[in-house]
Amino acid sequence: LSIVPNERWRLRIFSLSPITLSGVLPQLQHMGLEAVDEHPYEFGGTCPFWIYDFGLRPSQAASLAAESGGEAVRAGFEAALTALWLDKTEDDAFNALVLDAGLTWRQVVLLRAYARYLRQIGTRFSQSYLQRVLRANAPITRLLVRLFESRLDPALHSGAAERSEAITEELRGALHAVESLD
Fold first, then answer.
1. Disulfide-capable partner of 9 in 30, 56, 67, 104 (CB 3.0 to 4.6 Å)?
2. How confident is the model over 123-139, as pLDDT tens digits?
3. What is the CA radius of gyration of the chain?
4. What burial class does residue 169 get, using C-beta atoms within 10 Å of its C-beta: 0-12 exposed, 13-18 middle, 19+ buried?
């Protein structure tokens, strides 16, 4: 993935077998990207391979995230796309949080699990609604993940109570700016 601020992003996929647009476009859309062009190249010989060059238009949140942390955003996107292709994660709109909120694909799995848990206990909010809310409130989403990790990551055990309290206070302040507290 090449990211140039205020321009289209370019994604190049190298593959030993052909891929279909119907297979890759939904994955890109679920990550919050719009494919605006695609150029396939086939190379023959004893071991044929394909290069697919996609022009992508990111969401506004993804553009802002890329401006502030370009390399980390690129690496996170590539890891998430690889996880999708290897069936290590699900393909849904939660994946847009990788770019919009700067989360890893594993952190997105955590939020997806929470959304499903909420559905099981009878919340009235649909999964697609929860996806939209988390994307629209990316800073709060990041804080929720940080709070979870602060409280439950064994590697962060030292100072967990103080750190968690600080994150909770930051969360309370951020929630005051939310238009709808649904």
1. 56
2. 899 999 999 999 999 99
3. 18
4. exposed
Q: Check residue 13 and report its DSSP letter.
A: E
Residues 6+ apart with CB under 8 A from 115: 94, 127, 130, 131
Residues near 49 by beta carbon (within 8 Å), at least 6 away in sequence: 14, 15, 16, 43
CA distances from 86 to 8, 51, 80, 93 (A): 26, 18, 10, 18
Tokens in use for 133?
């809310």
Q: Which amino acid would we find at residue 105?
A: W
35 contact partners, CB below 8 Å, separation of at least 6: 25, 28, 29, 54, 55, 56
Contacts of 107 (CB under 8 A, 6+ apart): 97, 145
CA distance 41 to 48: 11
Name the pTM for this structure: 0.87
Q: Which residue has the tokens 């951020």?
A: 174
73-91: pLDDT as tens digits: 889 999 999 999 999 999 9
> Are 1 and 10 within 8 A, CB to CB?
yes
